[in-house]
What does this fold into?
Amino acid sequence: LAQAIFVRPSPSASGPHRTAEHPPVAGVNMGNCCAPGSEDAEVNGAAAAAVTPQDNTMSKNSPPASAAASPAGVGSASTQQSPANRGLTFELAVTDLEKAEKLAYGSVFANFGPSASGYVPVNSELLIDYVSANTCLPYTDIDTVLLTAAQNNDEMAIKLENFLKIMQDNSIQEGMVLERFLGLSDNGEAIQSSECRSGLLMLKEELGAAAASVGEARWELVFDSVMANAEATVNMDAWTDYCRKVARIAHVTHAAKL
It folds into this structure.
């Protein structure tokens, strides 16, 4: 009988699990115990039946079973429109960002498998993978961030409100935001409103797939909303706030496939 042996490697920080496939072991044809052998074939004039091992239908490129069970949003960062997040639209993300985040990330968090009391362990692979794929946090810093968020909870675990704050606070790298401001400013203190808008447009290259989810046609709506109360000149604090909101809108749009 054809047999296949699969070895599951240890999880890695850089990508999904893969399976290694070994070639099937040549089997013995058990279809007919009285089938003529080669010697009998010569006598009887019949050809001996060839033994052909069955093809292994599983591919080493097939994802492990755990991938199918991963929560919406891990890797691809997507959610589905469930009863809990109906009404979640791109317009809501632009006009009421915090509400949109609660709906989108609430659905994601539910798929991490929280306990009856609403907690997800800090060592949950699903949680760690999602934060890694959808924030600016280096992978090596994620454990520390999760432990810090969980330290005031009854359990060393993450609640929805902790998860939301992690997603909001780590939507974009602060160092890059500061560099962009200094590059746009003549005096290091303020920039013109028009330059601010142009600078926000340049953030797209830092947001990757999240920026692509917004699409060219909708960026103007994002900037109009974020800069609705902007003055003629924009200081560093205002610029930082605008950058964070732009990144958060892009991430929630990508997460919920809006």
Remarks:
- Residues 148 and 156 are 9 Å apart (CA to CA).
- Residues 1-79 have pLDDT under 50 and may be disordered.
- Strands lie at 6-7, 20-21, 120-121, 157-158, 190-192, 233-235.
